[in-house]
Design a protein that fits this description.
The protein contains twelve helices and 13 strands. It is of the alpha/beta class and 352 residues long. The protein folds into two domains: 4-147 and 286-310, Response regulator (Rossmann fold), CATH 3.40.50; 149-283 and 321-342, Response regulator (Rossmann fold, 3-Layer(aba) Sandwich), CATH 3.40.50. The longest helix is centred in the middle third of the chain and has 17 residues, at 178-194.
């Protein structure tokens, strides 16, 4: 049976109170780093990104890795959800609480956790901290789990160009940050290398510091509808939960959608649209989470940059849709592009 601990985030004032209590004679954070979990059982924790569990994409992929660790490694899993409008102090408190409870490793799902991990990790030197999609924060007990998203997105561009009948395809980014621009760059390059005459429409849902573009499906739906009205017949959205709105819009028009992060054809929450999900750019977030947890359980915690690319199947394209499997010309083009990237015959751009 699964046992999950959900940790609700409280306000900044509570965080300050907890920290001041530690300073006034309580157990030091570094002492707590080696404490067992409350039940005495080994445990690992993940703190979710914007959208939380149930986004059918990025966060759910991380959850799958934690669930696998629970089953295969017999550990206890802890989860912490984000809150609306939270700031850095909330993330600091969340990670601190997870570490104090003896969870090891503690994994922040997404680059937004970088400032908080930078503050918290030194206070718990015996705890391994993982962060997905970020290399800006480093330390002896920090593992940076990163991916060559541009490579998987290039393959999506190849597939989109081959599947398109109008010669116009669309890219939707959740928030205009360097990470998501990697998705755009690879996708656009894959499209143009396959069909130089193709048109790529690009749109971003929000600009930092507004990160609603990762969380609100209505924004993704509206952007996709605009691109569909402009002639796009394949839409690729790298927008977390907001991407489900783009998939809905494409399905309503009888056009193709390309999913992201997880194999969205197989996501229960998107079942009604699955026939319109041509493929998905997958990131092996699940295995990256599991592998880090296992390294800690084995007594050899992995730290530093851990990169997942096409050469290690860390990114790729899903082929769950039977309609995709029937597209021999698309599959052949994708496989050739994959082989050429691995052989370094193609260098994929990381910025548009």
């Amino acid at each position: 049976m699964r046992r999950i601990t959900r940790i609700a985030t409280v306000g900044i004032a509570s965080a300050a109170l907890a920290l001041s209590a530690t300073a006034c004679g309580g157990k030091k954070s570094s002492d707590a780093s080696s404490s067992p979990s409350e039940s005495g059982q080994k445990s690992a924790a993940i703190a979710y990104d914007i959208g939380g569990r149930g986004d059918q994409s990025f966060n759910d992929a991380a959850y799958a890795g934690l669930k696998k660790a629970e089953t295969d490694l017999k550990i206890k899993g802890a989860e912490a959800e984000p809150t609306d409008g939270e700031g850095e102090a909330d993330k600091v408190q969340r990670l601190t609480e997870l570490a104090r409870k003896g969870n090891n490793p503690v994994i922040g799902v997404g680059f937004a956790y970088a400032p908080a991990i930078k503050k918290v990790a030194p206070k718990f030197p015996n705890t391994t901290f993982g962060i997905i999609d970020d290399t800006s924060v480093t330390g002896e007990n920090i593992a940076n789990l990163v991916f060559n998203e541009e490579q998987g997105s290039y393959l999506a561009g190849v597939a989109a160009a081959k599947a398109s009948k109008t010669g116009t395809v669309g890219f939707i980014g959740g928030v205009e940050v360097p990470l998501i621009k990697k998705f755009e760059a690879g996708f656009a390059q894959g499209v143009k290398d396959t069909n130089p005459n193709a048109k790529v429409l690009s749109a971003y849902l929000t600009q930092p510091p507004n990160f609603d573009g990762f969380a609100k499906p209505d924004l993704g739906k509206a952007a996709a509808q605009g691109q569909l009205d402009a002639g796009a017949d394949v839409i690729y959205a790298a927008a977390g939960l907001a991407g489900s709105g783009a998939i809905e819009a494409a399905s309503a028009k009888g056009k193709w959608a390309i999913g992201v992060d997880s194999d969205q054809y197989n996501q229960a929450g998107l079942a009604k649209y699955k026939d319109s999900i041509l493929t998905s750019v997958t990131k092996d977030v699940s295995d990256s989470v599991f592998n880090l947890i296992k390294s800690v359980e084995d007594g050899k915690p992995t730290t530093g940059e851990i990169r997942y690319g096409l050469d290690k199947d860390g990114v790729g394209l899903a082929d769950s849709n039977p309609k995709y499997k029937e597209m021999a010309d698309v599959i052949a083009a994708v496989e050739k592009a994959k082989a050429d990237i691995i052989a370094k015959k193609i260098t994929v751009k990381t910025a548009p």
